[in-house]
């Protein structure tokens, strides 16, 4: 029987920390809010908005209970209020509500 030395080192360090790393935007109200996305029913309205780099998007809880999760943003479940998110980098940023399947929206920053 041959001796086999197997070094199985699974590097599974890719975890929550990486997923939660800020993607270039922070929650702040120091930029022009150029779009509003409502969380209502079982969906975001609209499903997509486009803003310019440096602008902000206001997420408004307009009906039902929802949380809001995106890169660098995590708001617990609630049924009213709002959150302004400023986008400082170009790209497409996806947001989800984990309480409702397929409840997603995206912010396209140009
Ligand atoms: Cu929801």
TrEMBL record:
Enumerate the Pfam families for this protein: Copper-bind
Q: Where is the Blue (type 1) copper domain?
A: 35-110
What range does the record give for the signal peptide? 1-28
Tell me which UniProt keywords the record has, alphabetically.
Answer: Copper, Metal-binding, Signal
Q: Which domain of life is it from?
A: Bacteria
Q: What is this protein called?
A: Cupredoxin domain-containing protein
Q: What is the lineage of its organism?
A: Bacteria, Bacillati, Actinomycetota, Thermoleophilia, Solirubrobacterales
């Amino acid at each position: 029987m041959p001796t086999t030395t197997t070094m199985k080192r699974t590097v599974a360090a890719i975890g929550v920390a990486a997923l939660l790393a800020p993607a270039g935007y922070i929650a702040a109200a120091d930029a022009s809010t150029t779009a509003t996305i409502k969380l209502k029913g079982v969906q975001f309205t609209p499903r997509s908005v486009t803003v310019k780099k440096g602008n902000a998007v206001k997420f408004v809880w307009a009906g039902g209970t929802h949380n809001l999760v995106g890169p660098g943003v995590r708001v617990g479940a609630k049924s009213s209020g709002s959150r302004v998110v400023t986008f400082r980098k170009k790209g497409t940023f996806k947001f989800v509500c984990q309480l409702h399947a397929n409840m997603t929206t995206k912010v396209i920053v140009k």
